[in-house]
Design brief:
This protein has three domains: 13-215 and 256-372 and 571-700, Up-down Bundle (Growth Hormone, Chain: A); 374-474, Domain of unknown function DUF5300 (Immunoglobulin-like); 480-568, Immunoglobulin-like (Sandwich), CATH 2.60.40. 51% of the residues lie in helices and 16% in strands. Helix 5 (107-138) runs antiparallel to helix 15. The strands form seven sheets. Strands 13, 16, 17, 21 and 22 form a five-stranded mixed sheet that branches. It is α+β, with helices and mostly antiparallel strands and 706 residues long. Mean pLDDT is 84; it is low at 675-706. It has 18 helices and 22 strands. It is a multi-pass membrane protein.
């Protein structure tokens, strides 16, 4: 008899399993929350490669459960499999953390250690996934079905509690703590590594209380051999057999009826799983595409609080904790009062609809987000804006054709970039610049395709002249603003903004563009050689903007004129909340239901295998993201809309398939099919068993058909 929690039918051992899952999920989601920005900002990869590696890692994490199920069911058992693969898991976290330390080798070493760490983590987390949930279910006696069902909700809430805290804390460790002079990814990965060590210790601490089912043998090999024999036997037979209504019945010559019935049950569920990866293709983009969307939004809540773009993922875990009891205690009972039969498969189909609606909401947000983004020039063209520093209005023409529709006033903030046709990858152009009230001049400059430029126009003793500078138009992936300074003084100047120092040589020279923290800068220090320099008021440097500050003298005082080259993010991050709410509602109906459905429809000796099959749908979902996101080459809002449409189409297919699915009770197999030894000699006895099984299946159809 296993120990029980006081006054309940819950085994005491599940406390250790739930705490273990909380710590393990903290380590996994904490590391994963900062992974995309780690690829972008630390390893220096571009957005598409970062997304690809992120989803390749996510996919591997869900391909490896089949390996864990094999090890658990045919060799070590669930308990030892969890122990040994958790050790691999811890090693992977440590290697990943070491790879994020700048002083450890060069960039190639960081990439090698990071990839090795991710592979070990994938094998660790994936290997234990099918075992932990099934191992928790094994702790309950057969008569405590309701307690077991509630355990899965508690288990899932522990997952999301760990996810909530980790997605809140690790982005703060990344961006709020500086180590080695930059964001502290080593600490952001190190804390999840420590939590995984705690998870391992807690699980081992409960070892004396666990109910352990011994491994059942190489189930997958046995299933494969049985399926292969049935196909081979049916192929060789030239005559049909009316007694064999299912193609698997042709394996009865060699394999037991019980095994064949179990395989039928598993295959029916696996066929039903075929459309499910599309849901996960949408769901897993919270950590990639949705995080990248957040970097181009306004992250400020008032003057004192700013959220990190990778912290928005915590909304999913937070809402899970809120939605699970709301759905269990309010939504499902209310729907039941309306006499609607809320079967598991109907819940899952509804979850798909909610996920599609979430991507519809993400599409609307993205359409507004991109309004502040400067699109790069296509091949054969470049982008050009005019910065008028001359005393008067200017016009710019090319071959007597105006490049800009109106004259440009003195120190006007550039409104937008204009496309400049080149015809070749690089071309020298002669631009005619005219200043009101004075003679014009021709500026010969070399332009390259796909780049963005500012043409600085200013006065010299010899007349009007111009200077071409290349601009940085790509918004920073962490949402910080870019700043540069143009020095119009006759002396060099130094300006310090936060932790960054900018140096400009005299006479219209430009500093390097640098990223600074988003905040108000009412007084930044500056210094020149000949005399002191009063502090400069730069005002608010907002999320995602690119600024050029023109340093000039006005009324014998040095001032900084702000020019906004790339507009600041003007869509607030709160607009992501509806899409997170919708996809979380979808997850409650789809994922929690599917987790319990997989366990309840699995024969006793195949529960880990069917759990692995469920998790395998997540892996294929990430493969879909790689195919669509990396192959389609669509604008982001169009890609979101495509995913939403695909999921709605898949939902229709799944609903049709679900209508023909029959729910079964695997526990009834023990009452129908007795053990093989000495029981199959009497043909009449076998016939009676089969009749009993058929009666059970017909009764099940009448009572539970969707």
């Amino acid at each position: 008899m296993s120990k029980k929690l006081c006054g309940t039918n819950y085994p005491l051992s599940i406390c250790f399993i739930v705490v273990n899952e909380f710590c393990e999920r903290f380590s996994y989601y904490g590391m994963k929350a900062v992974l995309t920005l780690y690829f972008l900002n630390y390893l220096g990869w571009d957005k598409d490669l970062s997304t690809a590696i992120y989803h390749a890692f996510s996919g591997l994490c869900y391909f490896t459960p089949i390996l864990g199920a094999l090890i658990a069911d045919s060799w070590l058992g669930k308990f030892k499999t969890i122990i040994y693969l958790s050790i691999v898991y811890v090693i992977g976290h440590v290697v990943k953390s070491v790879g994020a330390i700048p002083s450890v080798g060069n960039k190639d070493a960081h990439i090698a250690l990071s990839m090795l760490g991710l592979i070990l983590i994938a094998f660790g987390t994936g290997g234990i996934k099918p075992c932990v949930a099934a191992f928790g279910g094994d702790q309950f006696d057969e008569e405590h079905l309701k307690e077991r069902q509630k355990f899965f909700s508690i288990f899932y809430m522990s997952i999301n509690a760990g996810s909530l805290l980790s997605t809140l804390i690790t982005p703060i460790l990344r961006g709020g703590v500086k180590c080695f002079g930059e964001d502290c990814y080593a600490l952001a990965f190190g804390v999840p590594a420590a939590l995984m060590m705690v998870a391992l210790v807690v699980f081992i601490a409960g070892s004396g209380m666990y109910k352990r089912n011994p491994p059942q043998g190489n189930i997958l090999l046995q299933v494969g051999n049985c399926v292969g024999f049935a196909i081979k036997n049916r192929w060789k037979s030239s005559k049909s057999d009316p007694k064999r209504k299912h193609w698997l019945d042709w394996a009865e010559d060699k394999y037991s009826k019980r095994l064949i019935q179990e395989i039928k049950m598993v295959l029916r569920v696996l066929v039903l799983y075929i459309p499910l990866p599309m849901f996960w293709a949408l769901f897993d983009q919270q950590g990639s595409r949705w995080t990248l969307q957040a970097t181009r939004m306004n992250l400020a809540f008032g003057d004192s609080f700013t959220i990190q773009p990778d912290q928005m993922q915590m909304l999913n875990a937070l809402m899970i904790l809120l939605f699970v009891p709301i759905f269990d205690l309010i939504v499902y009972p209310l729907v039941g009062l309306c006499r609607v039969n809320i079967t598991p498969l109907r819940k899952m189909a509804t979850g798909m609809v909610f996920a599609a609606l979430a991507f519809g909401a993400a599409t609307l947000v993205e359409v507004n987000v991109v309004k502040t983004v400067v699109e790069p020039a296509p091949a054969g063209k470049c982008l050009l804006q005019i910065v008028n520093l001359a005393e008067g209005n200017v016009t710019v023409t090319r071959n007597e054709e105006r490049l800009f529709p109106v004259t440009i006033p003195h120190l006007q903030d550039p409104s937008k970039y204009e496309l400049l046709p080149l015809g070749n990858s690089s071309m020298e152009l002669g631009l005619q610049v005219s200043l009101s009230g004075s003679a014009s001049n021709t500026c010969n400059q070399t332009f390259e395709e796909r780049k963005a430029y500012s043409l600085l126009i200013y006065n010299e003793m010899s007349g009007i002249t111009c200077k071409l500078v290349e601009d940085h138009i790509i918004k920073n992936e962490d949402g910080t603003p870019n700043v540069r300074f143009l020095n119009t003084l006759s002396e060099a100047i130094n300006i310090t903004v936060g932790k960054e120092t900018f140096y400009m040589s005299p006479n219209y020279n430009l500093s390097t563009s640098k990223s600074v923290d988003r905040k108000e800068y009412p007084a930044v220090s500056c210094s020149i050689q000949s005399e002191g320099c009063d502090d400069l008021n730069l005002g608010l440097l907002d999320f995602g903007a690119s600024y050029t500050f023109i340093i000039r003298e006005e009324s014998r005082k040095i001032v900084a004129k702000k020019m906004e080259d790339v507009k600041a993010n003007n869509v607030h991050i709160a607009w992501q909340i509806p899409q997170y709410a919708l996809i979380t509602a979808g997850e409650v109906m789809f994922s929690i239901t599917g987790l319990e459905f997989s366990y309840s429809q699995a024969p006793t000796n195949m529960k880990s295998v069917l759990q692995a099959g469920w998790l395998l749908t997540v892996a294929f979902g990430n493969v879909i993201v790689l195919i669509v996101a990396e192959g389609a080459g669509l604008e982001q809002w169009k890609e979101f809309l495509l995913f939403a449409g695909l999921l709605l189409g898949v939902c229709i297919i799944f609903s049709v398939m679900a209508a023909f699915y029959t729910y079964v009770d695997p526990e009834q197999l023990d009452k129908i099919y007795l053990e093989d030894s000495g029981k199959d000699e009497d043909d009449d006895y076998d016939t009676k068993k089969k009749q009993n099984a058929d009666m059970l299946m017909k009764e099940t159809r009448r009572s539970t058909k969707l």
